[in-house]
Amino acid sequence: MQNFNNIIMSVFGGREIELPLNIKVLMNLKKEFGLDEISYSELLKKVHCDEQSQEIREFIKNEVRKILYECKYCPLHLADCHTQKVPGEGSWNSPLMLIGEAPGFEEDRLGRPFVGRAGELLTVILNKLNIDRKKVYITNVVKCRPPQNRTPLASEVKACSKILELELEFISPKVIITLGSVPLNYFKPKSSIVQSRGQWIYERGIWIMPTFHPAFILRQGGEALKRVKWQVWSDFNRAIAKVKELKPDYDFN
User: Fold this and answer.
1) For the chain, counts of helices (H) and of strands (E)
2) CA-based angle 192:196:197, to the nearest 5?
3) Which residue of 123, 159, 164, 204 could cross-link 74, Cys pair, CB 3.0 to 4.6 Å?
4) Where are the domains of the chain?
5) How far is Cα 144 from Cα 160, in angstroms, rounded to an integer?
6) What phi-psi label fits residue 121: left (phi over 0), alpha (psi between -120 and 50 degrees) or beta?
7) pLDDT of the chain, 253 residues: tens digit per residue
8) What end-to-end distance do the CA atoms of the chain give, in Å?
């Protein structure tokens, strides 16, 4: 680790610099597990396919949560509606990631993503697909509840992207299901969820399936409800088929 620090200092002439968050996590990880000589790309492989992997993933999860809990990048952490930050949850080894928009009232109260009515519906969908919720990774683009559950502002998305990028890098999902317009536009700016849902996006080596947020389903009625439920069910089935094609050995039960 000392050699790595010396290289950093020599490159920047001894000046103190703000290291990228992923490098900070890497340095702490190397120190914790005595991995001074391993490269960054080799380390990412160890996160998923090494006998030490479970310990490494748990350490990374805790490091990312520390960064989240200390985050003051945007004013949301000072909002009256915000009582605690809501980290992602689930398996850090999952090939499937579900990304929503931001926490609501129940999520803020309990400190967990998707635990309100929309979360209950999401769990039902996963159960019908014979998928244990704990075996996928579920998170939001923004980790603090916006006032009156409004759509997160672009500045809030940009600020919170620091955490989401760490999740994406260290989990390295094969498939992502984006729930709603905010995560869709994170990967494909200026997109319409109505026009884009059900259409594959391939970015960063990840297959991304946009679909409606469960809260949108709950707001529907009559024929619109039947149509939207069928569309979301179809999107989830296609995403699950893709992830099983890419990672057939992963057990979702």
Assistant:
1) 11, 6
2) 115
3) 159
4) 16-246
5) 9
6) alpha
7) 455 555 554 544 555 567 899 999 989 999 998 888 888 888 888 888 766 789 999 999 999 999 999 999 999 999 999 999 999 999 999 999 999 999 999 999 999 999 999 999 999 999 999 999 999 999 999 999 999 999 999 999 999 999 999 999 999 999 999 999 999 999 999 999 999 999 999 999 999 999 999 999 999 999 999 999 999 999 999 999 999 999 999 999 9
8) 39
Cα distances from 17 to residues 9, 14, 26, in angstroms, run 9, 9, 16
CATH architecture type of domain 16-246: 3-Layer(aba) Sandwich (3.40)
3-state DSSP assignment of residue 140: strand
**Tokens representing residue 9 in the block:** 């200092």
State both tokens at 69. 């809990």
For residues 221 and 86, give the distance between their C-alpha atoms in angstroms, rounded to a whole number: 30
The C-alpha atoms of residue 213 and residue 227 are separated, in whole angstroms, by 14
50 vs 52: CA distance, rounded Å? 5
Whether the Cβ atoms of residue 169 and residue 160 lie closer than 8 Å to each other: no
Over the range 102-121, which residues count as b (16 or more CB within 10 Å of their CB) and which as e? bbbebbbeeebbbbbebbeb
- Cα–Cα separations (whole angstroms), residue 84 to 61, 123, 135: 17, 23, 24
The residue behind tokens 């005595």 is 34
User: How is residue 209 annotated by DSSP?
Assistant: E
Backbone torsions φ then ψ of 192, nearest 5 degrees: -100, 125
